[in-house]
Amino acid sequence: MRMMVAFEKGEALRHIGHLDLMRTMQRALRRSNLPIKYSNGFNPHIRLSFAAPLSVGVIGLHELMEVPLVEEVTEAQFVESMNTVLPSCMRIRSCRAVEDDFPALMSLVAGADYRITIAKTDEGRKAMDRFDDFMALDSFIAQRRTKSGENPCDIRPFVLSGLCKETEDSFVIELRTIATQAGMLKPSLWFDCLREFAQCEEIPHLIYRVSILAKSKAGELVPMEEV
After folding, report:
1. For a designed S-S bond to 118, which of 20, 46, 171, 221 qualifies (C-beta 3.0 to 4.6 A apart)?
2. pLDDT at 184
3. Angle at CA 8, nearest 5°, toward 29 and 12?
4. pLDDT on residue 96
5. Count of alpha carbons within 13 Å of 151, Cβ hemisphere only?
6. Rounded to 5 degrees, what angle do the CA atoms 104, 57, 173 make?
7. What is the mean pLDDT of the chain?
8. pTM of the model
9. Closest of 112, 111, 130, 154 to residue 203, by C-alpha
10. Helix 187-198 and helix 122-129: axis angle, to 10°?
């Protein structure tokens, strides 16, 4: 069996890369005394996989990974055992047992919801004033970094919807992006494009990935935990 696990990667860890995150989870799984399944061969290791790697600098509120088990454990036992050995800035939020024939999480990724909190500065206000105009564009060409180098890419098709609002302490953007054949859009690139469009200088901000999305049987985008 496998466990679909939702966890939080907190603000203190936002600059930790994906490989370091994976190593941390593997150590925690070994210390948890849970019946983890290891690979065969000379150098057994945990076949740990994630739905979608999180960009460096982004806070993950509902990240997803799948953990193979050799025997059944209750969801409550899994959460308690893992949170006992994980740091306070990385917590298991929930988990769900799935059968071995359940699709790999990475194959289900259809998009993501993000929240960007922006400091209430003059530059922040300037960016917010141009938000609607930016979202109304049919296209916006940006230099997107890929394995083959930087290539021009129209980022507009990656964005399904967005809205902005003002709170007492900050400006907040809620953004829904979709996965395409070209991959997924980094929210930091989108925000840089907004700043470029609004002709803004650097703005203090934080980016959160609120949830990873998959398609339901009805074809609607929903948090992957609900599939």
Report:
1. 171
2. 92
3. 100
4. 95
5. 7
6. 90
7. 94
8. 0.94
9. 130
10. 90
Quick: pLDDT tens for 153-207: 999 999 999 999 999 999 999 999 999 887 899 999 999 999 999 999 999 999 9
SS (H, E, C) the chain: CEEEEEEEECHHHCCCCHHHHHHHHHHHHHHCCCCECECCCCCCCECCEECCCCCCCEEEEEEEEEEEECCCCCHHHHHHHHHHHCCCCEEEEEEEEECCCCCCHHHHCCEEEEEEEEECCHHHHHHHHCHHHHHCCCCCEEEEEECCEEEEEECHHHEEEEEEEECCCEEEEEEEEECECCECCCHHHHHHHHHHHHCCCCCCEEEEEEEEEEECCCCCEEEHHHC
One-letter amino acid of 7: F
pLDDT in tens, 16-61: 999 999 999 999 999 999 999 998 888 888 889 999 999 999 999 9
Say what the alpha-carbon torsion angle 220, 106, 187, 149 is, to the nearest 10 degrees.
-130
For the record, the structure tokens of 97 come out as: 């047992």
Residue with tokens 């359940």: 102
Residue type at 47 in one-letter notation: R
Nearest to 25 by CA among 109, 82, 95: 82
Report which of 62, 63, 60, 53 is spatially closest to residue 17, judged by C-alpha positions.
53
Q: For tokens 């193979």, name the residue.
A: 68
What is the number of alpha carbons within 13 Å of residue 122 lying toward its C-beta?
2
